[in-house]
Amino acid sequence: MTEERKHILITNDDGIESDALGPLADALWAVGNVDIIVPERNWSGASHSITLYRPLRVKATQLRSGQPAYMSDGSPTDCVRLAVLGFLPHKPDLVVSGINRGSNMGDDITYSGTVAAAMEGLLSNVPSIAISIGAFGANLDFGPAASFAALLAKNILAKGFSSDALLNVNVPALPRERITGVEVTRLGKRNYRDQLVERLDPYGEPYYWVGGPAVAGDAEPGTDVAALRAGKISVTPIYLDLTSHELIHELATWDWGWSAPVEVSAD
Ligand SMILES: [Mn+2]
Fold first, then answer.
1. Which domain holds residue 23?
2. Which of 36, 83, 112, 205 has fewest C-beta within 10 Å?
3. 133 in a domain, yes or no?
């Protein structure tokens, strides 16, 4: 007797063209049955956006590497919503979002479509992982990140992981033998150096472009940024509850000048 195989949903924010999808799907097929629903274009930086005012279309297609996949004209979060709300005949047992080209550490997670897709999995009560590789270049080797995703998937599905946190994983873009370990971390601090560029279009109208050099970060010990810099795989458990517990009590001491009392109802 064999146990029924679990269902793993792969999505991403880099879109159907991402060459990380093939290696990730191959690695995850060793752990369970894999369904792929990804956006038809790159949605990097789309965060947790959803489509409300137009229909979603889904097309059966193939990855560059030949595996069957679905692509939708919606966001990464839309892809997860399609999957869990009935486009697939079964609700996934695990959502794996990635492998993103470029790390998602510290403050990046507030922009990341990759992490947001895992948030959506979590909101649908499905254990969820976001996974990114620490480089943007061409011809990246997604092998080490794909095998780590499979290892994590196997553990989560075996242990029946039921937490209200997602796991945000960043893997150094290094050959397997140069990855020095795995560290469980907290989010670090990013230093963005983006600038506003104003130029004129061919009609003389100004347009604006916000961008800058590759993002840096403070490598404070214990953070995702420090782990990656030390050549380690970083695993950060992330809650969706953004409440500042420190400020709850401080705000209650303010003189609000409001006619009714200001209550502290949380702790
Ligand atoms: Mn991306």
1. 7-188+218-242
2. 205
3. yes
Paired strand residues for 216: 191
Residue 151 forms part of a structural domain:
yes
Segment 66-99, tens digit of pLDDT: 999 999 999 999 999 999 999 999 999 999 999 9
Q: Residue 255 domain-assigned?
A: no
Judge whether 40 and 88 are in contact, CB under 8 Å.
no
Q: What is the CATH number of the domain that holds 109?
A: 3.40.1210.10
- Cα(107) to centroid(ligand 1), Å: 15
What is the 113 CA–ligand 1 centroid distance (Å)? 7
Instruction: Give the number of domains in the chain.
Output: 1
pLDDT digits (tens, 9 = 90+) for 144-162: 999 999 999 999 999 877 7
In angstroms, rounded to a whole number, what is the distance separating the alpha carbons of residues 68 and 59?
A: 11
Distance 118 CA to ligand 1 centre (A): 13
Q: What is the pLDDT of residue 161?
A: 79
Q: Separation of 12 CA from ligand 1 center, angstroms?
A: 7
Inside any domain, residue 128 = yes
Which residues are within 5 Å of ligand 1 (an ion), measured at CB?
13-14, 44, 100
